[in-house]
Amino acid sequence: MYEMAVFVQVVEAGSFSEAARQLGTAPSAVSRAISRLEAALHTPLLQRTTRKLRLSEAGVEAYRHCQDMLRAIEAVADVAGEKQIEPSGKLRISAPRALGRHLIHPHIAEFLAKYPQVDVVFSMEDRPVDLIEDHVDLAFCITDDPPPGLKGRKLFRIEQIVCATPEYLQRAGTPHNPKQLTEHSCITLSENPIDSRWKFSKGSRTLHVDIKGRYTVNHAAARLDAIKQHVGIGCVPKFMAEEALASGELLPVLQDWQFTTNYQGDVWMLYPPTRYVPLKVKSFVDFICEKLI
After folding, report:
1. Would you say 289 and 170 are in contact if contact means Cβ atoms under 8 Å apart?
2. What is the model's pTM?
3. Domains within the chain, CATH numbers bracketed
4. Which of 29, 64, 63, 65 is CA-nearest to residue 46?
């Protein structure tokens, strides 16, 4: 059924790349879906040229039948949705690790108790998730530019904060200018040079600082723990450090400078652009919005 929906989207979009953009997936995933449908029907449906796509004779008939079938499925889904009082089924969700562990996971037990007929499969990983290829019902992502073809709900914004313990700053000194970070042990995200170049701005002034340190770890919770153990100055999502900042266990560094990283932005909940949103998805969207907004 997924392959038929993708086929209709390709025909109406006029290209694989535009269909992929509208579906929020990769062109390669769209191409594989069309190939599977053609293999199942034992006939080519699209004639591919360098400039455009054209329906084959069989493709014209297949397109008409696929449209009819999708309309019929939506009608059945509407009837089922009206009759379904309680959400049920398996709900597959995905989120980046730090966001998922600290902001989403703490509410899952309450959701399961509230909706006893829904089972949740929660995948926490930092790689980009393809909702269609990965069979995900709903994905959380941090972006200022969500895929235009997906349905979504913006929750809040995530910022990163540079911080250290009072003990470390007393021992090593407190930097008052980003350039002074080169004199400090900084906890880095990865060995990629991009992640070791921190960007700061103040008004029209922008500084890029190549930081270095003795500890590199690609997990936000581990970086926070290392900062608390006085290993050095590090950056973590602000929501993870709020409690330690409030208690004075950690102190913000270079507060009068704006710190910018690739790992910040608006938090979106994204789900496939179907007219009928399953009740299990709608219930989770409403539930988590109530908790987080």
Report:
1. no
2. 0.70
3. 2-83 (1.10.10.10), 89-154+266-292 (3.40.190.10), 160-260 (3.40.190.290)
4. 63
> How far from 119 is each of 112, 114, 213, 253, 272, CA to CA, in Å?
7, 11, 43, 43, 19
The contacts found for 145-150 with CB under 8 angstroms, 24 or more apart, are 146/266, 146/268, 146/270, 147/21, 147/24, 147/270, 148/21, 148/22, 148/24, 149/21, 149/22, 149/23, 149/24, 149/273, 150/23, 150/24, 150/270, 150/271, 150/272, 150/273
Edge to edge, the sheet with strand 160-164 lists 186-187, 233-237, 160-164, 251-252
Read off the amino acid at residue 233: I
Pairing of strands 160-164, 251-252: antiparallel
pLDDT in tens, 111-126: 999 999 999 999 998 8
CB atoms within 10 A of CB 41: 14
Nearest to 100 by CA among 286, 293, 288, 244: 288
Tokens of 7: 């086929």
Model confidence pLDDT, tens digit, residues 35-56 = 999 898 889 898 875 567 888 8
Helical (H) or strand (E) element with 82: helix 57-83
